[in-house]
Each structure stands twice: as C-alpha cells, then as structure tokens.
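Quick one: structure for this chain?
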Amino acid sequence: MTYKIGTIGEFARWTQRVVADPAAASVTPKSWFDTEQTAEKALGTRTTPEAMVKLLSNENLVLLHLIASAKPSSMVELAKLAHRAVSNLSRTLRKLHEAGIVDFERGPGKTRAPRVMASRVTLELDLKGTNSSVSVERQKDRDAASGAGG
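Got it. Here's what it folds into:
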C-alpha cells in the first residue's frame, strides 16, 4: 500500500500512537487522503512502480519524445512516424494513458491525436518494504504550482 485513506480523526489518533511509539510509523504509508478520489487526483496514477519501470522502456521514451516534438494529428500519422503498427501503438498508448502520461485530443471524424501530458514521473522505491510509490506530474499541475497560466 502506498497511501492510506482515513479521516482527520484517524490521522490524529495515528499521529498520537507514532509520537508514543515511533516504530508504529514504519508499517503505515506516509501519504494520507480523505477519499480514493483525492488520492488519485494527488498521485495521478494507480500504476505500480514495477509496471511503470516496464512502461517507460527506452522504446516508449523515444515514442513519447516523438509525440511531444512532432505533435502528430492522428494515430495513423504517429504510426508512420514511429514505423510501428497502429494496433501496437494503440496498446502502448492505452497503457500510457492509464498511467496518466498520455492523453488524446479529438480530431476530425474519429481521429484522436496523442499528446504527452506528463512533465515528470517520480518513482519512490522502498527497497526493504512495500511502501513504493509512483507519482505522475502533469503539465497543467506544474503550471498551476508555479503560478503560470495554461
């Protein structure tokens, strides 16, 4: 578990236990949220660290760079640029979308243009336990944090 859902009261009681017994903190995630929706919004993805490492292969990083720089107007155009089959790209982009890295703009007809929405992916790997986590910072989140409009 990378985070915990709980009320302010539960968090306060946990904090009191940790003050009395600091070892109690070792088995509880550092991030607390009031709802799953808040956690998903803050963390940006439910992709496991292991899956994210596989997803961010060299081949997929090249693909993300290609999408960001060429801004293809459709999946077919991206397939031509990447020298890959549309079906192969569709599977890869679906996984990148589920991870919060890629989104799609609607185009004419049924076309969808892939867009890289993430500006940063952070993996926190707990090498001695089960508290590893992944966070995906999307460009609009970064702009809002810095005060830039967008």
